[in-house]
Q: What sequence folds into this?
Protein backbone atom coordinates (compact mmCIF):
# COMPACT_ATOMS: atom_id res chain seq x y z
CA UNK A 1 0.00 0.00 0.00
CA UNK A 2 2.93 2.29 0.68
CA UNK A 3 3.87 2.00 -2.99
CA UNK A 4 0.44 3.35 -3.93
CA UNK A 5 1.06 6.60 -2.08
CA UNK A 6 4.42 7.02 -3.81
CA UNK A 7 2.98 6.42 -7.25
CA UNK A 8 0.02 8.81 -7.07
CA UNK A 9 2.07 12.01 -6.75
CA UNK A 10 4.39 10.75 -9.50
CA UNK A 11 1.49 10.37 -11.91
CA UNK A 12 0.21 13.83 -11.05
CA UNK A 13 3.61 15.46 -11.44
CA UNK A 14 4.02 13.93 -14.90
CA UNK A 15 0.74 15.33 -16.11
CA UNK A 16 0.32 18.84 -14.71
CA UNK A 17 -1.28 21.53 -16.85
CA UNK A 18 1.60 24.02 -16.99
CA UNK A 19 4.45 22.19 -18.61
CA UNK A 20 8.16 22.86 -18.65
CA UNK A 21 11.14 21.46 -20.52
CA UNK A 22 13.06 19.63 -17.87
CA UNK A 23 14.25 16.27 -16.64
CA UNK A 24 16.17 14.98 -13.67
CA UNK A 25 19.78 15.77 -14.48
CA UNK A 26 20.84 14.51 -11.05
CA UNK A 27 19.91 10.96 -12.09
CA UNK A 28 22.18 10.96 -15.13
CA UNK A 29 25.15 8.61 -14.77
CA UNK A 30 28.31 10.43 -13.73
CA UNK A 31 30.97 10.27 -16.46
CA UNK A 32 34.43 9.84 -15.01
CA UNK A 33 36.41 8.16 -17.79
CA UNK A 34 35.77 10.63 -20.61
CA UNK A 35 38.12 13.52 -21.27
CA UNK A 36 36.89 16.91 -20.11
CA UNK A 37 37.26 19.59 -22.77
CA UNK A 38 39.33 22.14 -20.85
CA UNK A 39 37.41 25.32 -21.64
CA UNK A 40 34.74 27.53 -20.08
CA UNK A 41 31.85 27.75 -22.52
CA UNK A 42 28.91 30.09 -22.61
CA UNK A 43 25.95 28.39 -24.31
CA UNK A 44 23.95 31.16 -25.94
CA UNK A 45 20.17 30.88 -25.96
CA UNK A 46 19.41 28.78 -29.05
CA UNK A 47 17.76 30.54 -31.98
CA UNK A 48 14.19 29.40 -32.45
CA UNK A 49 13.67 28.53 -36.13
CA UNK A 50 10.72 26.24 -35.54
CA UNK A 51 8.21 28.58 -37.12
CA UNK A 52 9.99 28.13 -40.47
CA UNK A 53 9.18 24.43 -40.61
CA UNK A 54 5.65 23.75 -41.88
CA UNK A 55 5.21 20.66 -39.71
CA UNK A 56 5.66 22.76 -36.55
CA UNK A 57 2.76 25.11 -37.33
CA UNK A 58 0.28 22.96 -35.43
CA UNK A 59 2.28 23.44 -32.22
CA UNK A 60 1.69 27.19 -32.32
CA UNK A 61 -1.95 27.19 -33.43
CA UNK A 62 -3.61 24.17 -31.81
CA UNK A 63 -4.26 22.94 -28.28
CA UNK A 64 -2.43 19.91 -26.88
CA UNK A 65 -5.30 17.68 -27.99
CA UNK A 66 -6.02 18.22 -31.66
CA UNK A 67 -6.87 16.48 -34.91
CA UNK A 68 -4.15 15.65 -37.42
CA UNK A 69 -5.07 13.86 -40.66
CA UNK A 70 -8.49 13.04 -39.22
CA UNK A 71 -7.13 11.46 -36.04
CA UNK A 72 -7.20 12.81 -32.50
CA UNK A 73 -3.61 13.39 -31.51
CA UNK A 74 -1.73 14.72 -28.52
CA UNK A 75 0.95 17.31 -29.31
CA UNK A 76 3.35 19.39 -27.22
CA UNK A 77 1.41 22.54 -27.96
CA UNK A 78 3.23 25.79 -27.21
CA UNK A 79 0.25 27.07 -25.21
CA UNK A 80 0.99 24.98 -22.16
CA UNK A 81 4.67 25.69 -21.71
CA UNK A 82 5.64 28.07 -18.97
CA UNK A 83 6.08 31.68 -20.03
CA UNK A 84 9.83 31.25 -20.40
CA UNK A 85 10.50 30.46 -24.08
CA UNK A 86 11.05 26.93 -25.36
CA UNK A 87 14.53 27.87 -26.61
CA UNK A 88 15.55 29.30 -23.21
CA UNK A 89 14.29 26.21 -21.40
CA UNK A 90 16.03 23.87 -23.87
CA UNK A 91 19.28 25.80 -23.52
CA UNK A 92 19.12 25.75 -19.73
CA UNK A 93 18.59 22.00 -19.49
CA UNK A 94 21.29 21.44 -22.13
CA UNK A 95 23.80 23.38 -20.01
CA UNK A 96 22.84 21.43 -16.90
CA UNK A 97 23.33 18.20 -18.86
CA UNK A 98 26.73 19.31 -20.20
CA UNK A 99 27.90 20.07 -16.68
CA UNK A 100 26.61 16.81 -15.25
CA UNK A 101 28.32 14.89 -18.06
CA UNK A 102 31.58 16.83 -17.51
CA UNK A 103 31.70 17.77 -21.18
CA UNK A 104 33.48 21.10 -20.63
CA UNK A 105 35.42 22.41 -17.67
CA UNK A 106 32.28 24.44 -17.07
CA UNK A 107 29.29 25.46 -19.19
CA UNK A 108 27.26 28.60 -18.51
CA UNK A 109 23.88 29.60 -19.78
CA UNK A 110 23.97 32.97 -21.54
CA UNK A 111 26.67 34.51 -19.29
CA UNK A 112 29.39 35.65 -21.68
CA UNK A 113 31.58 37.32 -19.03
CA UNK A 114 32.43 34.03 -17.34
CA UNK A 115 33.83 32.16 -20.32
CA UNK A 116 36.41 32.22 -23.09
CA UNK A 117 34.25 30.46 -25.67
CA UNK A 118 30.63 30.43 -26.70
CA UNK A 119 28.39 27.86 -28.37
CA UNK A 120 25.46 28.71 -30.64
CA UNK A 121 22.77 26.75 -32.41
CA UNK A 122 19.26 26.89 -33.85
CA UNK A 123 16.24 24.78 -32.97
CA UNK A 124 14.43 23.54 -36.07
CA UNK A 125 12.27 20.91 -34.41
CA UNK A 126 11.09 20.23 -30.91
CA UNK A 127 8.04 18.36 -32.06
CA UNK A 128 6.07 15.62 -30.35
CA UNK A 129 2.87 13.89 -31.38
CA UNK A 130 1.18 10.68 -30.28
CA UNK A 131 -2.19 9.01 -30.71
CA UNK A 132 -4.93 9.71 -28.22
CA UNK A 133 -5.49 6.76 -25.88
CA UNK A 134 -9.14 5.71 -25.80
CA UNK A 135 -8.28 3.06 -23.19
CA UNK A 136 -6.86 5.68 -20.84
CA UNK A 137 -9.87 7.93 -21.45
CA UNK A 138 -12.29 5.11 -20.59
CA UNK A 139 -10.22 4.17 -17.54
CA UNK A 140 -10.36 7.75 -16.27
CA UNK A 141 -14.16 7.51 -16.13
CA UNK A 142 -13.83 4.90 -13.38
CA UNK A 143 -11.97 7.11 -10.95
CA UNK A 144 -8.61 6.37 -9.43
CA UNK A 145 -8.87 2.61 -9.85
CA UNK A 146 -9.74 2.99 -13.53
CA UNK A 147 -6.86 5.39 -14.06
CA UNK A 148 -4.47 3.03 -12.31
CA UNK A 149 -5.66 0.09 -14.39
CA UNK A 150 -4.91 1.92 -17.63
CA UNK A 151 -1.83 3.80 -16.45
CA UNK A 152 0.38 1.51 -18.56
CA UNK A 153 -1.40 2.50 -21.79
CA UNK A 154 0.77 3.41 -24.77
CA UNK A 155 0.06 4.87 -28.19
CA UNK A 156 2.23 5.22 -31.32
CA UNK A 157 4.14 8.47 -31.33
CA UNK A 158 6.70 10.53 -33.19
CA UNK A 159 9.17 12.95 -31.64
CA UNK A 160 11.64 15.03 -33.65
CA UNK A 161 14.43 17.06 -32.06
CA UNK A 162 16.68 18.98 -34.41
CA UNK A 163 19.31 21.57 -33.59
CA UNK A 164 21.29 22.95 -36.52
CA UNK A 165 24.32 25.20 -37.00
CA UNK A 166 25.94 24.18 -33.76
CA UNK A 167 29.11 26.23 -33.67
CA UNK A 168 31.82 26.87 -31.14
CA UNK A 169 33.41 30.31 -31.20
CA UNK A 170 36.15 31.97 -29.25
CA UNK A 171 34.91 35.03 -27.38
CA UNK A 172 36.50 37.32 -29.99
CA UNK A 173 34.21 35.78 -32.63
CA UNK A 174 36.70 33.39 -34.27
CA UNK A 175 35.04 30.15 -35.30
CA UNK A 176 36.74 27.22 -33.56
CA UNK A 177 34.61 24.37 -34.89
CA UNK A 178 31.45 23.98 -36.93
CA UNK A 179 29.71 21.04 -35.25
CA UNK A 180 26.99 20.88 -37.88
CA UNK A 181 23.40 19.77 -37.36
CA UNK A 182 22.24 17.15 -34.89
CA UNK A 183 18.91 15.51 -35.67
CA UNK A 184 16.94 12.66 -34.15
CA UNK A 185 13.53 11.28 -35.00
CA UNK A 186 11.99 8.85 -32.52
CA UNK A 187 9.14 6.63 -33.69
CA UNK A 188 7.82 4.33 -30.99
CA UNK A 189 4.97 3.63 -28.60
CA UNK A 190 4.82 6.29 -25.91
CA UNK A 191 3.11 6.33 -22.51
CA UNK A 192 -0.34 7.86 -22.77
CA UNK A 193 -2.91 9.35 -20.43
CA UNK A 194 -6.54 10.34 -20.73
CA UNK A 195 -5.96 14.07 -21.12
CA UNK A 196 -3.03 14.30 -23.55
CA UNK A 197 -0.58 15.73 -21.01
CA UNK A 198 1.94 12.91 -21.11
CA UNK A 199 3.30 13.93 -24.50
CA UNK A 200 5.13 16.72 -22.66
CA UNK A 201 6.75 14.22 -20.32
CA UNK A 202 7.57 11.91 -23.23
CA UNK A 203 9.33 14.62 -25.23
CA UNK A 204 11.30 15.65 -22.13
CA UNK A 205 12.53 12.06 -21.78
CA UNK A 206 13.58 12.00 -25.43
CA UNK A 207 15.37 15.34 -24.99
CA UNK A 208 17.37 13.69 -22.22
CA UNK A 209 18.38 10.92 -24.64
CA UNK A 210 19.12 13.46 -27.38
CA UNK A 211 21.32 15.57 -25.11
CA UNK A 212 23.17 12.47 -23.89
CA UNK A 213 24.13 11.71 -27.50
CA UNK A 214 24.82 15.37 -28.28
CA UNK A 215 27.39 15.35 -25.48
CA UNK A 216 29.13 12.37 -27.11
CA UNK A 217 29.01 14.00 -30.54
CA UNK A 218 30.58 17.24 -29.26
CA UNK A 219 33.20 15.31 -27.32
CA UNK A 220 34.17 13.36 -30.46
CA UNK A 221 34.10 16.37 -32.79
CA UNK A 222 36.27 18.46 -30.46
CA UNK A 223 38.71 15.65 -29.65
CA UNK A 224 41.20 16.82 -32.28
CA UNK A 225 40.92 20.55 -31.46
CA UNK A 226 43.76 22.02 -29.46
CA UNK A 227 42.70 24.71 -27.00
CA UNK A 228 44.99 27.42 -25.57
CA UNK B 1 40.52 0.24 -74.59
CA UNK B 2 39.41 -2.89 -72.79
CA UNK B 3 41.67 -2.00 -69.86
CA UNK B 4 40.13 1.52 -69.59
CA UNK B 5 36.62 0.02 -69.62
CA UNK B 6 37.58 -2.35 -66.84
CA UNK B 7 39.02 0.52 -64.76
CA UNK B 8 35.81 2.56 -65.23
CA UNK B 9 33.72 -0.40 -64.13
CA UNK B 10 35.79 -0.94 -60.99
CA UNK B 11 35.74 2.78 -60.16
CA UNK B 12 31.93 2.83 -60.50
CA UNK B 13 31.67 -0.17 -58.22
CA UNK B 14 33.77 1.62 -55.63
CA UNK B 15 31.50 4.65 -55.84
CA UNK B 16 28.46 2.46 -55.26
CA UNK B 17 30.12 1.03 -52.16
CA UNK B 18 31.38 4.38 -50.91
CA UNK B 19 28.49 4.70 -48.43
CA UNK B 20 28.17 2.88 -45.16
CA UNK B 21 25.07 0.87 -44.48
CA UNK B 22 22.95 0.41 -41.39
CA UNK B 23 20.35 -2.34 -41.61
CA UNK B 24 17.67 -1.95 -38.98
CA UNK B 25 15.75 -4.72 -37.29
CA UNK B 26 12.54 -3.49 -38.94
CA UNK B 27 14.13 -4.01 -42.38
CA UNK B 28 14.87 -0.35 -43.15
CA UNK B 29 18.28 0.42 -44.65
CA UNK B 30 20.17 3.64 -43.99
CA UNK B 31 22.74 4.72 -46.55
CA UNK B 32 24.94 6.96 -44.48
CA UNK B 33 28.42 7.68 -43.24
CA UNK B 34 29.10 6.06 -39.89
CA UNK B 35 31.17 8.47 -37.82
CA UNK B 36 31.42 6.67 -34.52
CA UNK B 37 30.25 3.59 -32.68
CA UNK B 38 30.23 3.02 -28.97
CA UNK B 39 28.88 0.32 -26.71
CA UNK B 40 25.24 1.41 -27.12
CA UNK B 41 24.92 3.61 -30.20
CA UNK B 42 26.01 4.15 -33.76
CA UNK B 43 26.50 7.77 -34.84
CA UNK B 44 26.14 8.61 -38.50
CA UNK B 45 25.88 11.44 -41.00
CA UNK B 46 23.14 11.45 -43.61
CA UNK B 47 21.74 13.79 -46.23
CA UNK B 48 18.15 14.88 -45.65
CA UNK B 49 16.46 17.53 -47.80
CA UNK B 50 19.83 18.90 -48.97
CA UNK B 51 21.05 19.15 -45.39
CA UNK B 52 23.93 17.19 -44.01
CA UNK B 53 22.79 16.06 -40.58
CA UNK B 54 24.37 14.06 -37.81
CA UNK B 55 22.21 11.58 -35.96
CA UNK B 56 22.45 8.37 -33.99
CA UNK B 57 20.66 5.09 -33.47
CA UNK B 58 20.65 2.66 -30.59
CA UNK B 59 22.32 -0.67 -31.30
CA UNK B 60 19.27 -2.59 -30.13
CA UNK B 61 17.45 -1.25 -33.22
CA UNK B 62 20.18 -2.44 -35.60
CA UNK B 63 20.53 -5.84 -37.23
CA UNK B 64 23.89 -5.13 -38.82
CA UNK B 65 26.03 -2.32 -40.18
CA UNK B 66 28.74 -2.09 -42.78
CA UNK B 67 31.60 0.39 -42.72
CA UNK B 68 33.35 0.96 -46.02
CA UNK B 69 36.81 2.53 -46.09
CA UNK B 70 38.34 3.59 -49.42
CA UNK B 71 41.83 4.92 -50.07
CA UNK B 72 42.05 8.52 -51.33
CA UNK B 73 43.88 7.59 -54.52
CA UNK B 74 43.61 4.49 -56.68
CA UNK B 75 46.92 3.93 -58.47
CA UNK B 76 46.06 0.66 -60.21
CA UNK B 77 43.62 -2.22 -60.18
CA UNK B 78 45.57 -4.34 -57.71
CA UNK B 79 46.16 -1.44 -55.32
CA UNK B 80 42.48 -0.59 -55.49
CA UNK B 81 41.46 -4.04 -54.38
CA UNK B 82 43.97 -3.89 -51.53
CA UNK B 83 42.89 -0.45 -50.29
CA UNK B 84 39.20 -1.14 -50.36
CA UNK B 85 38.36 -2.13 -46.85
CA UNK B 86 34.83 -3.19 -46.01
CA UNK B 87 34.04 -3.97 -42.43
CA UNK B 88 30.77 -5.81 -41.93
CA UNK B 89 29.47 -5.88 -38.37
CA UNK B 90 26.54 -8.13 -37.56
CA UNK B 91 25.20 -7.38 -34.13
CA UNK B 92 23.95 -9.84 -31.61
CA UNK B 93 21.11 -7.55 -30.68
CA UNK B 94 20.06 -9.65 -27.73
CA UNK B 95 23.12 -8.25 -25.95
CA UNK B 96 21.61 -4.78 -26.10
CA UNK B 97 18.12 -5.77 -24.99
CA UNK B 98 18.08 -5.08 -21.31
CA UNK B 99 16.88 -8.02 -19.24
CA UNK B 100 14.35 -6.77 -16.74
CA UNK B 101 13.11 -8.83 -13.82
CA UNK B 102 10.45 -7.45 -11.51
CA UNK B 103 8.75 -8.97 -8.51
CA UNK B 104 4.98 -8.79 -8.85
CA UNK B 105 2.31 -9.36 -6.21
CA UNK B 106 -1.36 -10.10 -6.84
CA UNK B 107 -4.10 -10.43 -4.23
CA UNK B 108 -7.35 -11.70 -5.68
CA UNK B 109 -10.84 -12.57 -4.55
CA UNK B 110 -12.68 -15.28 -6.49
CA UNK B 111 -16.28 -16.28 -6.52
CA UNK B 112 -16.79 -19.90 -7.55
CA UNK B 113 -19.96 -21.38 -9.03
CA UNK B 114 -19.75 -25.17 -9.23
CA UNK B 115 -22.25 -27.86 -10.17
CA UNK B 116 -22.13 -29.31 -6.64
CA UNK B 117 -20.77 -26.43 -4.53
CA UNK B 118 -20.46 -22.65 -4.49
CA UNK B 119 -17.82 -20.71 -2.60
CA UNK B 120 -15.15 -18.06 -2.50
CA UNK B 121 -11.40 -17.91 -2.39
CA UNK B 122 -8.83 -15.29 -1.46
CA UNK B 123 -5.55 -15.97 -3.16
CA UNK B 124 -2.13 -14.36 -3.28
CA UNK B 125 0.33 -14.68 -6.16
CA UNK B 126 3.97 -13.69 -6.11
CA UNK B 127 6.22 -13.99 -9.13
CA UNK B 128 9.19 -12.67 -11.04
CA UNK B 129 8.14 -11.05 -14.32
CA UNK B 130 10.93 -11.36 -16.87
CA UNK B 131 10.74 -9.41 -20.11
CA UNK B 132 12.43 -12.23 -22.03
CA UNK B 133 10.21 -15.09 -20.89
CA UNK B 134 6.70 -16.06 -21.88
CA UNK B 135 6.11 -18.25 -18.86
CA UNK B 136 5.57 -17.15 -15.27
CA UNK B 137 5.59 -19.55 -12.34
CA UNK B 138 3.98 -17.84 -9.37
CA UNK B 139 4.07 -18.85 -5.74
CA UNK B 140 0.44 -19.01 -4.65
CA UNK B 141 -1.22 -19.10 -1.26
CA UNK B 142 -4.78 -18.62 -0.09
CA UNK B 143 -7.89 -19.75 1.70
CA UNK B 144 -11.19 -20.95 0.34
CA UNK B 145 -14.61 -21.74 1.65
CA UNK B 146 -17.49 -23.49 -0.07
CA UNK B 147 -20.94 -24.81 0.66
CA UNK B 148 -22.14 -28.01 -0.92
CA UNK B 149 -25.56 -27.81 -2.55
CA UNK B 150 -28.14 -29.49 -0.21
CA UNK B 151 -29.63 -31.60 -3.03
CA UNK B 152 -26.25 -33.08 -3.83
CA UNK B 153 -25.29 -33.58 -0.18
CA UNK B 154 -28.57 -35.33 0.65
CA UNK B 155 -27.58 -38.15 -1.72
CA UNK B 156 -24.52 -38.89 0.39
CA UNK B 157 -26.29 -40.54 3.34
CA UNK B 158 -24.61 -38.33 5.91
CA UNK B 159 -26.15 -35.89 8.39
CA UNK B 160 -23.18 -33.53 8.45
CA UNK B 161 -19.68 -33.37 7.10
CA UNK B 162 -16.62 -31.21 7.49
CA UNK B 163 -13.61 -31.14 5.25
CA UNK B 164 -10.14 -29.68 5.88
CA UNK B 165 -7.36 -29.87 3.34
CA UNK B 166 -4.19 -28.29 2.12
CA UNK B 167 -3.52 -27.59 -1.53
CA UNK B 168 -0.13 -27.58 -3.16
CA UNK B 169 0.65 -27.28 -6.82
CA UNK B 170 1.58 -25.00 -9.65
CA UNK B 171 -0.39 -22.29 -11.37
CA UNK B 172 1.75 -21.10 -14.30
CA UNK B 173 0.79 -18.12 -16.41
CA UNK B 174 1.54 -18.00 -20.13
CA UNK B 175 1.89 -14.50 -21.55
CA UNK B 176 -0.25 -13.88 -24.65
CA UNK B 177 0.46 -10.15 -24.85
CA UNK B 178 1.38 -7.35 -22.46
CA UNK B 179 -1.93 -7.65 -20.62
CA UNK B 180 -3.47 -11.07 -21.23
CA UNK B 181 -2.30 -14.35 -19.72
CA UNK B 182 -3.47 -17.95 -19.89
CA UNK B 183 -3.59 -19.57 -16.49
CA UNK B 184 -3.24 -23.36 -16.36
CA UNK B 185 -3.07 -24.72 -12.86
CA UNK B 186 -2.92 -28.08 -11.14
CA UNK B 187 -3.32 -28.35 -7.39
CA UNK B 188 -3.02 -31.51 -5.28
CA UNK B 189 -5.34 -31.75 -2.29
CA UNK B 190 -4.43 -33.56 0.89
CA UNK B 191 -6.48 -33.55 4.10
CA UNK B 192 -9.23 -35.23 6.06
CA UNK B 193 -12.98 -35.22 6.35
CA UNK B 194 -15.18 -35.76 9.44
CA UNK B 195 -18.53 -37.39 8.78
CA UNK B 196 -21.61 -37.99 10.94
CA UNK B 197 -24.27 -40.36 9.59
CA UNK B 198 -27.98 -40.34 10.41
CA UNK B 199 -27.38 -42.82 13.28
CA UNK B 200 -25.01 -40.35 14.94
CA UNK B 201 -21.89 -42.38 14.13
CA UNK B 202 -18.85 -40.26 13.47
CA UNK B 203 -15.93 -41.19 11.25
CA UNK B 204 -12.79 -39.55 9.90
CA UNK B 205 -11.26 -40.27 6.49
CA UNK B 206 -8.08 -39.21 4.81
CA UNK B 207 -8.77 -37.55 1.48
CA UNK B 208 -6.69 -36.59 -1.49
CA UNK B 209 -7.45 -35.30 -4.91
CA UNK B 210 -6.55 -32.99 -7.74
CA UNK B 211 -7.96 -29.65 -8.81
CA UNK B 212 -7.01 -28.58 -12.34
CA UNK B 213 -7.96 -25.12 -13.57
CA UNK B 214 -7.84 -23.25 -16.86
CA UNK B 215 -8.54 -19.61 -17.49
CA UNK B 216 -7.50 -16.20 -18.67
CA UNK B 217 -6.18 -13.34 -16.58
CA UNK B 218 -5.95 -9.68 -17.44
CA UNK B 219 -3.01 -8.18 -15.56
CA UNK B 220 -2.16 -4.53 -16.30
CA UNK B 221 1.38 -3.47 -17.17
CA UNK B 222 1.27 -0.63 -14.68
CA UNK B 223 2.91 -0.99 -11.28
CA UNK B 224 -0.47 -0.89 -9.57
CA UNK B 225 -3.71 -1.92 -11.17
CA UNK B 226 -6.77 -4.07 -11.18
CA UNK B 227 -6.49 -7.62 -12.47
CA UNK B 228 -9.42 -9.68 -13.63
CA UNK B 229 -9.66 -13.40 -14.29
CA UNK B 230 -12.18 -15.88 -15.61
CA UNK B 231 -11.78 -19.62 -15.78
CA UNK B 232 -12.99 -23.12 -15.16
CA UNK B 233 -12.00 -25.21 -12.17
CA UNK B 234 -12.45 -28.93 -11.68
CA UNK B 235 -12.07 -31.14 -8.60
CA UNK B 236 -11.65 -34.89 -8.27
CA UNK B 237 -11.56 -36.16 -4.68
CA UNK B 238 -11.57 -39.43 -2.75
CA UNK B 239 -14.19 -37.94 -0.41
CA UNK B 240 -17.21 -39.96 0.68
CA UNK B 241 -19.65 -37.11 -0.05
CA UNK B 242 -17.95 -34.75 -2.52
CA UNK B 243 -16.18 -36.71 -5.24
CA UNK B 244 -16.09 -34.26 -8.11
CA UNK B 245 -17.06 -30.82 -9.24
CA UNK B 246 -16.68 -28.45 -12.15
CA UNK B 247 -17.50 -24.79 -12.17
CA UNK B 248 -16.85 -21.23 -13.14
CA UNK B 249 -14.31 -19.06 -11.32
CA UNK B 250 -14.58 -15.28 -11.51
CA UNK B 251 -11.60 -13.47 -10.07
CA UNK B 252 -10.82 -9.83 -9.34
CA UNK B 253 -7.81 -8.44 -7.55
CA UNK B 254 -5.09 -5.91 -7.13
CA UNK B 255 -1.63 -5.92 -8.66
CA UNK B 256 1.04 -4.12 -6.66
A:
Amino acid sequence: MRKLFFVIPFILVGCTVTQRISYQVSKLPVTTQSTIIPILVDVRILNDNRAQEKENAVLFTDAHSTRINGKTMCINSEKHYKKDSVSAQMTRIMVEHFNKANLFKKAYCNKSSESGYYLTGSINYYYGEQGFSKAAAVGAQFGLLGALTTSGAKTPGKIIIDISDIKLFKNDGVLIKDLGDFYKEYKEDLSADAYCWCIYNNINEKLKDYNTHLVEKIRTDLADVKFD
Amino acid sequence: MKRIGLLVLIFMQLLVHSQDLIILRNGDILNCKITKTDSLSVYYTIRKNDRKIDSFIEKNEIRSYQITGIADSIPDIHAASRNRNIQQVVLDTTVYVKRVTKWINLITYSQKYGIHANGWEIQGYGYFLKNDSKWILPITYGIEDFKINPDYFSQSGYQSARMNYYMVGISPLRKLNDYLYVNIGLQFLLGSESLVDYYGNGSTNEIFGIAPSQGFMFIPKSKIGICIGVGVQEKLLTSAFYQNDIGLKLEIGLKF
About this structure: The two ends of chain B are 79 Å apart (CA to CA). Chain B touches chain A at residues 35-36, 38, 41, 43, 45, 48, 51-56, 178, 220-226, 256 (CB under 8 Å). DSSP finds three helices and 16 strands in chain B. Confidence is low (pLDDT under 50) at residues 6-18, 70-83 of chain B.
